[in-house]
Write a structure and sequence with these properties.
Number of helices of chain A: 3
Structural class of chain B: alpha/beta
Strand order of the largest sheet of chain B: 1-2-5-4-6-7-10-11
Helix content of chain A: over 70%
CATH class of chain B: Alpha Beta
Order of helices and strands of chain A: HHH
Shape of chain B: globular
Strand content of chain B: 15-25%
Structural class of chain A: mainly alpha
CATH architecture of chain B: 3-Layer(aba) Sandwich
Strand content of chain A: under 5%
Largest sheet of chain B: 8 strands, mixed
Distance between the termini of chain B: 51 Å
Order of helices and strands of chain B: HEEEEHEHEHEHHHHHHEEEHHEHE
Largest interface: A-B, 33 and 38 residues
Number of domains of chain B: 1
Distance between the termini of chain A: 50 Å
Radius of gyration of chain B: 22 Å
Oligomer: heterodimer
Shape of chain A: extended
C-alpha cells in the first residue's frame, strides 16, 4: 500500500500546484510573448554591440574575433554540404539506380 | 491508524529511520557530487546504416518472433536514449523481449551543416533510405514504422509522400497534428509575436537551451516539484538511479534544424496545415489520406506537451481502413519510460504490432 505523503510534501504541493498553474498561464499570455520578444531583440543587439567593440580591439592586436571564426565556420559548413552532395551524386553514378522496392501488400 | 508504543516496535521504527537517513545522506552526497552518473542506452546494438549524422541501429536479439522489423523513428529535438533509458526502464528492451526485431532511427546532433535540412530532407531522403536499409538488414520485404513525437510527424509525412515506401504498418506515439490543440507550447510563436528567426542561433539551428526553456515554460515549477520528489525518495537507491537517468535526459536536448523549424512554425503551427489539408512540401501538396496501411495512433491522456486534442485528429486524417487509437493514462515521456509504460503502454503497442506482423520463430 502506498503510504500517505509526508506533511512537508503535502504543504509543498498545496503551494506548488496553484503557483505553477498561475505561472504557466502567465507564460502563455500575449504580454509575456511581447516581453520575451523584446528581451530577445535587446539581447541580440547588445551582443552585436559587444562583438563590434571587442572585434575592433582584437583586430588592433592582430587577433581573430568571433566574427572571423564564424565566417570560417560558415565556409567549412558550406564545404561539408558540398562534400555531402558530391558523395550522393557519386553514389548515384556508381551504384546506379535507386534500390528496387517490392510492391506493398 | 493507531501507532504502537511497544519498545520493540519503537526500536524497529527508529532503526528503519536511521537506515533511511544514512541512505539519504549517501545518495544526496553522490547526487550533489555528480559522481554517480547513470549509464543510458545500454541495450546492445549494431549500426546497420549511416547517412551524414543519421544512424539506424538494430538491437541484438536471439528471440525474434515477428517480422517485419520495427523501425522506431525518434524526434528531432531530444535524445533517443529515452527509449532505452535504463535496463529496468527500457522500451527497446521490452519490445525485444516481446519478440519484435527492433531498430531505431537516431538523427544525431544537428550542427550548422544540418541547418538547411527541411522536412523533405527527413521525409523524402533519410527515412526512405533507412527503411530500405532496415529491410535489407532484416531480409524482409517491408517494415513497421513506429514514430515517437515529432518522429511520428516525419513518419506520417514520409509514408504520405512516398506511397511506394515498403511500410506494412504505421504506428505513432504522442504525435502532434492539430497545433491549435497545443497552444501551451506553440502559443509564443503562433500569433506572430515571436519570429522563428529570433530563436535561431548563429549555427542556423534552434539551440537546445531554447527548446529546454520552452518545455520549462509549460510547467514553470516543474523542476522544483521534481526536486521535492527526489528529496522525498532520496533514501531509495532504485528511485535515485531512475531519477538521475530521466533528469539527465530532460536536460539533454539537441539543436532543432533551422529550416525544419521555420517550416514547422510557418506551415504546421501557424497555418495548422496538417489538419487544414494545406501542407505543401517540395512544391506538392501533402495528402494524409494517401496513407492506406494499418495505422495506430497512441496518445497519452496526461500529456502536457502533445495533448490528446493535438494528437487525436490524425486518426481521422489518414486514409487507412484499419486505423485505431490507444488512449493511455500516461504523460508524454511516461508513455515510453515509466512503470505505467512497462505495464500498460508498451505491451499494448507490442500486441498491436505483433497482430499486424508475421510469426517467424519462437
Amino acid at each position: 500500500m502506498a503510504g500517505r505523503a509526508p506533511l512537508w510534501r503535502r504543504a509543498f504541493d498545496a503551494v506548488e500546484k496553484p503557483l505553477g498553474d498561475t505561472l504557466a498561464s502567465g507564460a502563455r499570455s500575449g504580454a509575456f510573448a511581447d516581453v520575451l520578444a523584446v528581451a530577445l531583440r535587446v539581447n541580440r543587439r547588445l551582443q552585436r554591440e559587444v562583438e563590434r567593440r571587442t572585434r575592433r580591439a582584437l583586430h588592433l592586436a592582430n587577433l581573430p574575433a568571433a566574427t572571423d571564426v564564424r565566417r570560417l565556420t560558415q565556409q567549412v559548413t558550406e564545404l561539408q554540404r558540398q562534400v555531402r552532395a558530391l558523395q550522393r551524386e557519386l553514389e548515384r553514378a556508381t551504384d546506379g539506380k535507386p534500390r528496387e522496392r517490392p510492391a506493398r501488400r | 491508524m493507531a501507532v504502537s508504543l511497544a519498545p520493540d516496535d519503537l526500536l524497529r521504527r527508529v532503526e528503519g529511520d536511521v537506515r533511511r537517513a544514512i541512505r539519504r545522506g549517501r545518495n544526496g552526497l553522490r547526487y550533489a557530487a555528480g559522481t554517480d552518473r547513470p549509464k543510458v542506452g545500454l541495450t546492445p546494438k549494431d549500426v546497420v546504416w549511416k547517412r551524414d549524422k543519421a544512424e539506424l541501429w538494430r538491437y541484438r536479439s536471439e528471440a525474434v518472433q515477428y517480422a517485419p522489423p520495427v523501425v522506431v523513428v525518434h524526434s528531432l529535438v531530444s535524445r533517443s536514449y529515452v527509449l532505452d533509458l535504463h535496463p529496468r526502464n527500457s522500451a527497446v528492451r521490452f519490445w525485444l523481449e516481446a519478440g519484435l526485431d527492433v531498430m531505431l532511427l537516431d538523427w544525431g546532433v544537428a550542427d550548422a551543416v544540418e541547418a538547411e535540412n527541411t522536412l523533405e530532407t527527413y521525409a523524402d531522403h533519410y527515412l526512405p533510405e533507412a527503411v530500405d536499409a532496415a529491410r535489407e538488414a532484416a531480409g524482409t520485404d517491408d517494415v513497421t514504422l513506429l514514430g515517437y513525437c515529432f518522429g511520428g510527424v516525419l513518419s506520417v509525412l514520409s509514408v504520405a509522400r512516398n506511397p511506394e515506401l515498403p511500410v506494412r504498418n504505421l504506428a505513432v506515439m504522442a504525435t502532434p497534428v492539430d497545433y491549435a490543440g497545443m497552444r501551451s507550447l506553440t502559443g509564443l510563436i503562433r500569433e506572430g509575436r515571436l519570429d522563428p528567426d529570433e530563436l535561431v542561433d548563429e549555427t542556423g539551428n534552434v539551440p537546445p537551451e531554447a527548446i529546454a526553456n520552452a518545455f520549462r515554460l509549460l510547467r514553470p515549477t516543474g523542476d522544483l516539484a521534481s526536486y521535492a520528489t527526489l528529496w522525498q525518495h532520496l533514501w531509495n537507491d532504485e528511485y535515485v538511479e531512475g531519477y538521475q537517468a530521466m533528469a539527465q535526459w530532460t536536460r539533454d536536448h539537441v539543436p532543432f534544424p533551422g529550416a525544419t523549424f521555420r517550416q514547422t512554425v510557418g506551415q504546421l503551427v501557424r497555418e495548422n496545415a496538417l489538419v487544414e489539408g494545406t501542407l505543401r512540401l517540395g512544391g506538392t501538396p501533402v495528402d494524409l489520406g494517401a496513407i492506406k496501411v494499418p495505422f495506430l495512433n497512441v496518445m497519452a491522456e496526461h500529456d502536457h506537451i502533445v495533448p490528446i486534442a493535438a494528437a487525436q485528429p490524425l486518426t481521422g486524417l489518414v486514409g487507412s481502413e484499419d486505423a485505431s487509437e490507444l488512449r493511455l493514462k500516461a504523460g508524454h515521456v511516461g508513455l515510453v519510460a515509466s512503470r505505467t509504460a512497462a505495464k500498460v503502454t508498451l505491451p499494448q503497442i507490442a500486441e498491436w504490432i505483433a497482430g499486424h506482423s508475421d510469426r517467424v520463430g519462437g
